[in-house]
Description:
Blueprint: H1 7-18, H2 24-30, H3 35-46, H4 53-86
Helix pairs in contact: 2-3
Amino acid sequence: MSTPITPDIKAQILSVIKDDGKSIEEAAQTYNLHHDTIRRWLRGTADNAPTSSGELQRLRRENQTLKEIIGNLILEREAAKKNLTRS
């Protein structure tokens, strides 16, 4: 018979996946659980659950990086347009 998972351990497993980016399969193997169990937990927490602060920070950094990339591409495109009109 399997050992019951305490709410603290469950929260730790979900945090490793959500905040640290560990895959469900990796977490399942590490904690000796079936991956469907973890998927069920994630589905249960996904509805109206607030995003963790770590995830929010990661998304903000990613958003800022994407904005910088887009800005650089726009500047490069405008410079290329100017070079074409001069030629």
